[in-house]
Write a structure and sequence with these properties.
With 266 residues, the chain is of the alpha/beta class. The chain contains eight helices and nine strands. Helix 6 (162-182) links the parallel strand 6 and strand 7. The radius of gyration is 18 Å and the shape is globular. The N and C termini lie far apart (39 Å).
């Protein structure tokens, strides 16, 4: 039997929610899902930037919609999915792309900065998956969840990433558990683990200040010789998300796709 490219990768008629917090991978993922045929709901707390991104991808405003959402707020997350259900009557795909890193030595990390990374990277993802699964399960059509994390959950990449890696590793564990619990409902959940990919993670204000003052992030991931394929980009993430969200990803759940440019084999 011949299978066409469209049969593998088109997602016409599907409704996708792409969540972010400060525009990490969301601007790369959204155009690809839209081009593949989905209606995309953008959920980020900056209303102006979110609306501008929606207009840039779909000037007609019919298939890319901005719904300003604070993903760290339970009431805002619940309201997001209620609005999606009221407007579209379905939720097929949930892509969580938010991430923040402070990249700070363990002994210098205040509990507040640890908590900030947990809130954006893990706690918000828990709430988004909980409410997303609730609506997917109620509709009875199955669904796909894709969480963008980091390959730092699999192997240390930079010094000073204990708090960041812990928050991301928690997402991986949650994803696998949810994949196991809801496979019977045809809700498939997987992770994408970018390595040296630009724009995948927002830098915390303290890290931005440190870099502006001449500081550096150090470790094997900062060594070009450990990256046989060089730096990646947002399109690499978007391609992996589409694979997992479309018909092509219909027989994979609870798994991880690593985009590390060859780091783990170097």
């Amino acid at each position: 039997m011949t299978v066409t490219v469209d049969e593998l990768f088109r997602i016409d008629g599907k409704v996708a929610v792409v969540t972010d917090s400060g525009f990490c991978a969301g601007p790369d993922v959204t155009p690809v899902l839209h081009a593949a045929g989905a209606t995309v709901v953008l959920a980020d707390k900056d209303p102006e930037k979110t609306a501008a991104l929606a207009r840039s991808v779909d000037p007609s405003g019919t298939r890319v919609i901005a719904l300003p959402t604070d993903i760290e707020s339970e009431s805002s997350v619940v309201a997001l999915f209620q609005q999606v259900a009221a407007r579209f009557g379905r939720l097929d795909i949930l892509v969580n792309t938010a991430g923040v890193t402070a990249n700070m030595d363990l002994l210098e990390t205040p509990l507040g900065i640890f908590d900030e990374q947990q809130s954006v990277n893990q706690r918000s993802t828990f709430m988004l998956m909980r409410e997303g699964v609730r609506h997917m399960r109620a509709a009875g059509h199955g669904g796909r969840i894709v969480n963008v994390t980091t390959m730092g959950t699999l192997h240390p990449v930079l010094h000073g990433n204990a708090a960041y890696a812990a928050s991301r590793a928690g997402v991986v564990a949650m994803t696998r558990s949810i994949a196991f619990d809801y496979a019977k409902d045809r809700i498939l959940a997987n992770c994408v683990h970018p390595g040296a990919v630009r724009s995948k993670t927002r830098f915390h204000e303290t890290l931005q200040a440190r870099l502006a003052a001449g500081g550096k992030m150090e470790g094997p991931g900062a060594d070009p010789s450990r990256l046989p394929l060089g730096m990646g980009n947002g399109q690499d993430i978007a391609a992996a998300v589409l694979y997992l969200a479309g018909p092509s990803g219909g027989y994979i759940t609870g798994q991880s796709i690593v985009l590390d440019g060859g780091f783990l084999i170097s």
